[in-house]
Specification:
7-stranded mixed β-sheet; binds zinc ion; Rossmann fold; 35% helix; alpha/beta
């Protein structure tokens, strides 16, 4: 492969290969961002998201959305985390108009409504929008976030497990800024690359014959991997003042895993918690 694309956060071309896989490289920029090269086309990205929604992209996430329809449980760790993040946004935002970008089953929009927000969503995938309407009766506009016809003036925008799927994270946050009212608040939830889970894969994945491990963790529909610093830099670059970058561990109950893999991941998550390197990031910021 020839020269790589510029870093989607800092724009430089100083990245080095962390992994070389068939048809793609996983690169680490000097700024700390890890990203995939080459970037797939818009059509390919949309096709992967539709496949992921139908449970056809990854075996581990086949049933991921099943627990988060209208039969969700209040004490599920994902539900509790959403509720906590909405409360944080509520303290940052002046008003109660909320837009959720990338709705999944519509659960976050539903929980926001339960918590008193005037909430709606936007999703690239028509099937996801239809499902959110069916499960929770929530309104979801269909379209690519950068181009979708949205009224704007929101007091809060949420992006849970979305920005790592975007072809252009800078443009994504810039659009969020444009759509927020002055002082409006942003929540971005992404995997944390600075965690023992990725560290283990980055070390073990260099051993010949272990590329499958790299492909399992660097999944086909994630195009960038953030650390606390690179996520905060992206938000500042897009015109936000960062209020907090919180860390939390993934809920392994979301994934279908063999007992051996589940045990190994649980041990890595426990180790991460002990050293402040939990596997997920939750950024809260306000429009400057
Ligand atoms: Zn960079």
């Amino acid at each position: 492969m020839g020269p790589h694309r510029p870093c989607p956060v800092c724009g430089e071309r100083r990245a080095r290969a962390l992994h070389r896989r068939p048809g793609r490289r996983i690169l680490r920029c000097a700024c700390g961002l890890v990203f995939v090269d080459p970037l797939p086309s818009e059509a390919e990205v949309a096709a992967r998201e539709a496949a992921a929604f139908r449970g056809q992209l990854l075996a581990e996430t086949r049933a991921m959305f099943d627990a988060y329809g209208r039969g969700y449980r209040d004490h599920d760790p994902v539900v509790r985390a959403f509720a906590r993040h909405l409360a944080t946004l509520g303290r940052l935002a002046a008003g109660r108009r909320l837009l959720d970008v990338g709705v999944g089953t519509g659960l976050l929009v539903h929980l926001a409504r339960q918590a008193g927000w005037d909430a709606a969503g936007v999703d690239l995938c028509a099937e996801a929008a239809a499902r959110a309407a069916r499960e929770f009766g929530v309104a979801v506009a269909v379209g690519e976030f950068l181009a979708a016809d949205l009224p704007g003036g929101y007091d809060a925008i949420t992006m849970a497990d979305v920005v790592e799927h975007s072809r252009d994270p800078r443009a994504f946050l810039a659009r969020a800024r444009t759509l927020l009212a002055p002082g409006g608040a942003l929540y971005v939830g992404v995997p944390n690359h600075r965690s023992p889970v990725y560290l283990a894969a980055d070390v073990l994945g260099r051993v010949p014959g272990t590329g499958g491990l790299v492909d399992r963790l660097y999944v086909p529909n994630h195009y960038q991997y953030f650390t606390p610093d690179t996520l905060a830099a992206l938000a500042r670059e897009a015109g936000f003042t960062v209020a907090a970058v919180e860390r939390e561990n993934s809920y392994l109950g979301r994934y279908e895993l063999s007992p051996v893999v589940r045990g190994g991941l649980a041990a890595l998550l426990t180790a991460g918690r002990a050293v402040g390197m939990e596997s997920r990031l939750a950024l809260f910021a306000r429009r400057t």
